[in-house]
Amino acid sequence: MKKFLVALFSVGAVLSSAVFANLDNPGGIGGLESLRGNTNLEETRPADAFKDFPKDQIVEDSFVYQPPLIPHSIRNYEVSLNANKCLACHSWKNAKQSGATKISVTHYVNRQDAVLADVSPRRYFCLQCHVPQTDAKPLVENEFQSVDSLK
């Protein structure tokens, strides 16, 4: 008898939660609101247009210790555990041949401050810090102003 009552109670709890879910969200699964707009989960939103990347245009840094921006398109660049397309041009070994900027010596130092012969694993995934420069509209309002000088 106890098992029957527990089963009956469980079924009642599931049904009542379904009823309350429909009251809170009539008409289905519902939508998702993000910084890019409102989207119903049942629909597929069209992809945003590709950003226009200015070719070989260097933008000044906005703040001290800002990682340099990437002045070219990185479409189809693979940066994974097995390959790093950035190092094909920017490593110390290849920079002179390709005419690219060498990566900083800090990228060859590990957490124990030992200088390595190759890029440190913590600096290997370039796109964690470096992003392509573009004139994209900001997703959120930003009133950042860089300092004129350091005192």
Characterization of the model:
There is one protein chain. The chain is built from three helices and two strands, in the order αββαα. Helix content is 21%, strand content 5%. It is elongated and about 80 Å long. It is mainly alpha-helical and 151 residues long. A hairpin with a 2-residue loop joins strand 1 and strand 2. It has a two-stranded antiparallel sheet. The model has no long low-confidence stretch (mean pLDDT 78).
Please summarize what this structure is.
This protein is mainly alpha-helical. Helices cover 21% and strands 5% of the residues. The chain is elongated and about 80 Å long.
Q: Total number of helical segments?
A: 3
Please mark out the parts with pLDDT under 50 across 5 or more consecutive residues, or reply none. none
Mean pLDDT: 78
Beta-strand content estimate: 5-15%
Percent helix range: 10-25%
Biggest β-sheet: strands ordered side by side in the sheet: 1-2
| First-last Cα distance | 80 Å
Structural class: mainly alpha
Categorize the overall geometry.
elongated
Alpha carbon gyration radius: 26 Å
- Count of distinct strands: 2
Order of helices and strands: HEEHH
Secondary structure blueprint with pairings:
Elements: H1 2-24, E1 31-34, E2 37-40, H2 87-90, H3 95-98
Features:
3 helices; two-stranded antiparallel ribbon; 151 residues; 21% helix; mainly alpha
